Amino acid sequence: MLVLARKIGEKIILNDNIEVIVLDTNQNTVKLGINAPKNVSVYREELYKEIKQNNITSQNVTEKSINELAQLLVSNEKSTNIVQRLTNKISD
User: Fold this and answer.
1) Each residue's pLDDT expressed in tens, for the chain with a length of 92 residues
2) Rounded distance, CA 87 to CA 70, Å?
């Protein structure tokens, strides 16, 4: 792990295209500004962990969850095609 000390207004450059700026500090916190290209995702750790867990959970599609989705779609007449395709996938 690289440990750096920076003062307010000083920057850290990552990979030539990501800039981390120290905006403010106090006893318990540091405010950082991050300039990164739009294709670079930047998350707080707790949010990143939640997204990662939700992605893992969403991969666990079961027959029950597909049936529940089908029931929701049945209430919409335009969804009949989708329901038929889902039902066919369950049968396969």
Assistant:
1) 999 999 999 999 999 999 999 999 999 999 999 999 999 999 999 999 999 998 888 777 777 877 877 777 776 656 566 666 666 766 65
2) 8
Q: Token digits for 71?
A: 């029931």
DSSP E strand stretches across the chain = 11-14, 18-25, 30-35
User: Which two tokens mark 13?
Assistant: 């450059």
Token duo for residue 86: 């889902």
- Token duo for residue 55: 């992605």
Distance of CA 45 to the CA centre of its chain: 11
Place of tokens 């969403």: 58
